[in-house]
Amino acid sequence: MLTTKKRLNSLVLFGLITAVSQAQAGCEEAPSGERTFTLCKVWPAYDDQTIVATSTFKPDSADANNDGGNVDLELSLIRSSSSKRLANYLKKDAYYSDAVAYEGLSIDTARYKLAPESRAFGIRSSFEHSSSVNPYHKTELALYLKEGDTLRPVLEGLIISTSRGEWDGNCAGEGERTQRTVDIGNTTHNGFADLVVSSTVTVTKNFRVGEECNDTSRKLKTTRVTLEYDGKHYVVPVALKG
């Protein structure tokens, strides 16, 4: 059962923005396993601006145990002190939830300065298949820019982290975890800075020795890929795309 803070409806949320901003604290509380929620976060790069994200799950059936369904995503940029909406974005069926279930999202306000006058914010969306034998988790990153009264996605579907494995349900097995970082490059294409994506893979093996379950892990060499802006969006290679 979600707490009141997690289940803020839009009217209550907007009424609280001013107090949150004055307290210089974000109002984000990441949902856990819930697909319908509203959260927000003060944007540190800009005075008096708050990012609001609403996720709405539409199940395939009335069966409460059915994970299948589509998820709508709505983003807003609002004036913290007045609740005035500055820009908006709505994408129907932004995600699909099934055996690999949509687990929620978080707002990323890292320094995504793509041009001298253009700074983006990120949305990280998480998906998970819970299994003791074949677990899987991934997080995707999208970046959005304010253009007039709209928010435009300039990067979508970049897998920022994954973990997967094959286990015997007891101890033995192998797993792999990939972590990626995004840095602003020194070169530009079509007016926007290139994005440098660094990937680090850690391989883990579990094995039983007597009554104990032991493990070993090793990191593979970090690799880097540069994403270029084609005039509409950053082109993400298939190998990095969700």
TrEMBL record:
Keywords: Signal
Signal peptide annotation: 1-25
Record protein name field: Uncharacterized protein
Organism whose genome encodes this protein: Pseudomonas mandelii
